[in-house]
TrEMBL record:
The protein's name: non-specific serine/threonine protein kinase
Ligand binding (ATP): 92
Taxonomic lineage from the root: Eukaryota, Viridiplantae, Streptophyta, Embryophyta, Tracheophyta
GO cellular component terms given for this protein: plasma membrane
Top-rank EC class of the record's enzyme: transferase
Domain Protein kinase: 63-343
Keywords: ATP-binding, Cell membrane, Kinase, Membrane, Nucleotide-binding, Phosphoprotein, Serine/threonine-protein kinase, Transferase
Statement: the UniProt record of this protein carries the keyword Transferase: yes
Gene3D superfamilies for the chain: Phosphorylase Kinase, domain 1 (3.30.200.20), Transferase(Phosphotransferase) domain 1 (1.10.510.10)
InterPro entries: Kinase-like_dom_sf (IPR011009), Prot_kinase_dom (IPR000719), Protein_kinase_ATP_BS (IPR017441), Ser/Thr_kinase_AS (IPR008271)
Length: 361
């Protein structure tokens, strides 16, 4: 969990001991903001709104089945139409009582971090609802759902190679922005980067979502030791798992796993495989730099006319460096962005589409 954030909030609560208000009454960001860690000049609230429970019910037709989009660890997600007419995705917190405190923390982190960020590759938070014990997060609606469903879920036409490259580049740019200090003044580790947290808009532009586990890296520190390893099985940085040391490079590892999903069309963890083949990284790691063997793991759904083997080899090589066990040997997200631009250029040039210039990507 984002311990720095929470402790800042708790400290503030303790120091305001004269304030006897109900802990379930959500306080706006200003009350519990990251006063100790964050520079003053950060972007704040891009028009994100506070909604009532009634507005959430109205927007989703009382959480009707036809508006149901999917379910995750936090609760169900519904499509909704706000009074303004805007279509949004509404995530409803539904947790058993023993998990409520954890959910509340994730809710606060999501609202605080995401309302400060603005980037075309990060999903935007339109607002939230904290009415009594009810908690909702309201996001821009992403018409094409999450990346994993497109790779190996719903039976629609599969994404071809140029679109996959564009998704990889968009996600890389989103992570690079989080890792740079330009977002909130200090780098942010996402900590739960995975293909279900990459959402796709109408044009298949990738946007990263779910910042509930995100952690601001304290200034001047490159690692942060956590008491519990959090994230999703299949995307865990082995160094973080074994030492508890969180670095920006943990996101790079998870990014490498997503690159492998894009390349192979396989899941990060596939429980239908035998015990030795369940983990995608272990399955393919050793063949990523062997061009002959590499061909065997290319997603068979990819149309052969959409890729060049040169671009596949470059992509596999980048993925292999992202998932290195030693975090210091992995590239930075900035480097990944540059390499993916080059890979896109190489692919389009190899296919004869010389209209691309590197500058345009
Ligand atoms: N902004 C959005 N627009 C459209 N669909 C969304 C949006 N946010 C989430 N969804 C959909 O809702 C479903 C549940 O998302 P959710 O983030 O709760 O779960 P998850 O990513 O599968 O797991 P986790 O809880 O670990 O993040 C997903 O299928 C996702 O595609
Ligand atoms: Mg998610």
């Amino acid at each position: 969990m984002p311990f720095g954030l929470v402790s800042a909030w708790n400290k503030r609560r303790r120091s305001k001991s004269h304030d006897h208000s109900d802990p379930w009454v959500y306080r706006p960001v200003e009350y519990w903001q990251l006063e100790d860690q964050t520079p003053r000049s950060t972007k704040r609230h891009h028009g994100s709104s506070v909604f009532t429970l009634r507005e959430m019910e109205e927007a989703t037709g009382l959480f009707s089945d036809e508006n149901f989009l999917g379910k995750g660890g936090f609760g169900r997600v519904y499509r909704g139409t706000l009074r303004s007419g805007e279509i949004v995705a509404i995530k409803k917190m539904e947790l058993p009582p023993f998990k409520e405190a954890e959910g509340e923390r994730e809710f606060r982190v999501e609202v605080d971090i995401l309302s400060r960020l603005e980037h075309q590759n990060l999903v935007s938070l339109r607002g939230y609802c904290a009415d009594g014990k009810h908690r909702f997060l309201v996001y821009e609606y992403m018409k094409n759902g999450n990346l994993q469903d497109h790779l190996n879920g719903i039976g629609e036409a599969k994404m071809d190679w140029p679109i996959r490259l564009r998704v990889a580049l968009g996600a890389a740019k989103g992570l690079a922005y989080l890792h740079s200090s330009s977002a909130v003044g200090i780098p942010i580790v996402h900590r739960d980067f995975k293909s279900t947290n990459i959402l796709l808009d109408t044009n298949f532009e990738a946007k990263i979502s779910d910042f509930g586990l995100a952690k601001l890296m304290p200034e001047g520190e490159e690692t942060y030791v956590t008491a519990r390893v959090l994230g999703t099985f299949g995307y865990f940085d082995p160094e973080y798992t074994s030492t508890g040391k969180l670095t920006l490079q943990s996101d790079v590892y998870a990014f490498g796993v997503v690159l492998l999903e894009l390349l192979t069309g396989r899941r990060a963890v596939d429980l239908n495989q035998g015990p030795n083949d369940q983990n995608l990284v272990l399955q393919v790691r050793n063949i990523l730099n062997d061009r002959k063997k590499l061909r065997k793991v290319i997603d068979p759904e990819l149309s052969r006319s959409s890729y060049t083997l040169e671009s596949i080899a470059m992509f596999a090589n980048l993925a292999s460096r992202c998932v290195r066990t030693e975090s210091s040997e992995r590239p930075s997200m900035e480097e990944c962005v540059k390499e993916l631009q080059l890979i896109m250029y190489t692919n389009s040039k190899g296919l004869g589409g010389v209209t691309y210039t590197l500058r345009k990507l």
